[in-house]
Amino acid sequence: MAKRINRASEVRLQEHKEAIKNRLLEASKMNNDEVLLKYHTTMDGLSDTQVEKNVEMYGENIISKNKEDSVFKRLYDAFINPFTVILIVLVGVSFLSDVVLAAPKERDYTTIIIISCMVFISGILRFVQESRSNNAAEKLNEMIETTTKVKRLNEQEKEIPLDEIVVGDIIYFSAGDMIPADMRVLNAKDLFVNQGSLTGESEPVEKFANNKIKGTLTETSNLIFMGSNVVSGSAIGVVLSVGDDTTFGSIVGDVNQKAPETSFEIGINKVSWVLIRFMLVMVPIVFVINGLTKNDWLHALMFAISIAVGLTPEMLPMITTTCLAKGAVAMSKKKVIVKNMNSIQNFGAMDILCTDKTGTITVDKVVLQHNLDVHGNEDDRVLRHAFLNSYYQTGLKNFIDLAIINKSKQKDIDDIVIDRFEKVDEIPFDFNRRRMSVVVSDKTGKTQLITKGAVEEILSVCSFVEYHGDVQPIDENIKDKVLKVVEQLNHEGMRVIAVAQKSNPAVVGAFETKDEKDMVLIGYLAFLDPPKETTKESIRTLVEYGVEVKVLTGDNDMVTKSICRQVGIDVKEVILGSDLDEMSDEEVKKEVKHVDVFAKLSPSQKARLVKLMKDNGNVVGFMGDGINDAPAMNQSDIGISVDTAVDIAKESADIILLEKDLMVLEEGIIEGRKTYGNMIKYIKMTASSNFGNMFSVLVASAFLPFLPMSAVQLIFLNLIYDLSCTAIPWDNVDLEYLKKPRDWNADGIASFMKWIGPTSSIFDITTYILLYFVVCPAVTGGLLFHQISDPNIQLQYIAVFQTGWLIESIWTQTLVIHMIRTPKIPFFQSRASLMVGVFTSISIVVVTVIPYTIIGEMLHLTPLPLLYYGWLLLTIVLYMVLVTIVKKYYIKKHGELL
After folding, report:
1. Of 54, 89, 249, 420, whose CB count within 10 A is highest?
2. How far, in Å, CA of 674 to CA of 734, rounded?
């Protein structure tokens, strides 16, 4: 029956998808007026009333790919995990031995109640902490919002969040924008879209207002789809499908797969499996030894299961989640927003930062210093032409365009020029041509094609030059003189672009890139974008923290050298994009090790450099904010952008900076390393402490005539220790530890366990001897256990022994937190945070005092003589001395402690 229902649901879903697809194809065959009529809209946009109707009819623009778990589901996940399952099994075994199989008068519910309380405390603790972490992550994500430009009835064009888009909305988009929904193109100019996320195509495809190409849905030339982004050009479109009804939404629904594991997640899993494999070996051995020596297989089973609890890294998920959430919140206070929690570790591990020059190293306030003719003389005519180009282009207005417009306003050129000219057409910018053109006409009917762009690219389309007042053909002599002027400006740290024009171009129909030819060079524009005052110090600090800074820019090498020299970046050698094309991957991999500056790069060349740096074994971050940076950001280990970046750059990023400054980045790196440091502390502490305790248990099981600690006592000890560890995410981290990139590595866990774990076992075994031969006989009349015949005195003997080892265990386990958290001398050279100090102190006090309470009686604990506490203090002092010595030799052999 259930299968038939599921099958029927699948059929209905498939029919719905087919209907959506047919609706899109139908819209592609209509003319603009028919499409607008069908979706109850106009070129002026939807009315508020129609927006509400369309939301009810077609739904919201939200993809339900990550449905939030309910409270009950999160509670279930908090309580049902390996740790609590083992505890629940112990409850069952205790119920069987202490209630079902026991005589009515001997029935004892104490163990059942205590373990049930532990299950409750552990589950609630995990639920509360993970809920807080998830809430923190949600609040951070709410700080990052991608918008799109929409036209609504009786309103100006405005930016609204993507999830507020509805079917029928009129959307304006240009280079760098994300496509917010499935749409029909109504008007397009040289529109190229990257829809690789849907089709796997590596090259952008051109889209048109009319359907020139018929084929599959994604091949339809006047349809564009959610998940794509605009590479170049501009367009107006009407929304046809939103949310789950989009092509992207249906793919997300079909592909119900988890994202591939990151290196961080793989490392965490490796650690977990090291401890679990160790548990699978130890538990059967302890069970068999205790069963054979004590001849009580039921209690041997309970004890072995308790050992499993002690070795299970049950708090690891909660500790890592808390560390990451705490790190993300701390970073947000320093203007660094984490989109992907697991990227925090990569942030701390980063040893190469690749960055663009503009706005990161420089102030990002580009000023037009000079508008010059080809001889290097100031000429406002060059500025007028440049203004027309910048003002009338409909694509993304970058800092160059804004600087030109601002300078024109200062000189009152803007109003005069706008009154005289009107736009006819444009040829948008793209990163291969590195230029853009507009076509304007004046009131006399004269038409001009005006082009601005990189000097070399403009020269390549110019056949003539305005030279000494005349239009002359460009020869090599003139070209050399032009380039010398440009080179001099570049040496002064200025970025130079060229301006060219052509009057009354003979063009039939729309203008295209092939019409950019036989043009007249009229002059240059020189821009200054000086380095930030903080940049030099930021770069010095990043290098001090083990992060190399490499500049990857599309700008020319002269300007890049000048800026880099001012901020302390080595510019002995600069590799150009043209050089890269001539080099093999192996040659580039050698060069990137010692070259820090790369200029005149295309987007694909930036991505190639990042990939080859990663192939060299580096953890590479890429910081960018433009369309041309998105491929490199996707290729990097950690993509870094700013909240003012274009949509595609923000979508590609793992980290968003609220301030475009390397100093902010430095603070984020430090927080990333702190987060990693505190996680690895817990892992190594737990691994070594558990290994030591279980080794001690193995020895005790072989030689003692009774269990060294009852099952419920072991679980109680484990719970108290875990509670003390919950403060570790808030611990201090030594400054020296933060100076080095921290790449995730689980390989050192086993060796750390073998060195530090047996150190505590030495004192455990010494404590066994003292308890068995000195303390216990002192309490029970001077006899050893095997000499006692009275069962009550035997129970007292066992209670003293188990209490003594419980107290010694919590002291050594808790103090090892302070010993292992730093390679320095704890308490003197390096102090734990207040929270760690308080939690560990409370743990010691609770376990030390509990034998004197009613809970101690329930746990079969008993007060100890003063003789024991004198020995305990001596043991602790010797233990700390020995751990300090072992740490020293471990560091000498392995290089560092954590």
Report:
1. 249
2. 9
Give the three-state DSSP class for 438. Answer: strand
Q: How many CA atoms lie within 13 A of 585 on its CB side?
A: 9
Helix (H, G, I), strand (E, B) or coil at 253: helix
Are the C-beta atoms of residues 683 and 821 closer than 8 Å to each other? no
Per the model's pLDDT, the better-predicted residue between 204 and 264 turns out to be: 204
Strand partners, 552: 598
SS3 of residue 188 by DSSP: strand
Q: Which of 527-536, 579-588, 686-695, 748-757 has the highest mean pLDDT?
A: 579-588
Task: Tell me if 898 sits within 8 A of 674, measured CB to CB.
Answer: no
Q: Report the alpha-carbon distance of residue 130 to residue 173 in Å, rounded.
A: 40
Catalytic residue status for 356: yes
Residue of 356, 425, 430, 731 with catalytic role: 356
pTM: 0.67
| Whole-number pLDDT of residue 113 | 76
| Alpha carbon distance 462, 316 (integer Å) | 66
Closest of 45, 43, 77, 39 to residue 58, by C-alpha: 39
**Residue 428 three-state SS:** strand
The C-alpha angle with vertex 262 and arms to 258 and 264, in degrees rounded to 5, equals 130
How long a stretch of residues is the chain? 898
In three-state form (DSSP H/G/I as H, E/B as E, the rest C), the secondary structure along 462-520 is EEEEEECCEEEECCHHHHHHHHHHHHHHHHCCEEEEEEEEEECCCCCCCCCHHHCCCEE
For residue range 626-658, list pLDDT tens digits in order: 666 777 888 888 888 876 666 666 777 788 887
Tokens of 660: 């475009």
Residue type, 353: L
Type and span of the H or E element at 355: strand 352-355
CA atoms lying within 13 Å on the CB side of residue 745: 11
Cβ atoms of residues 831 and 868 within 8 Å: no
Cα–Cα distance, 20 to 240 (Å, whole number): 9
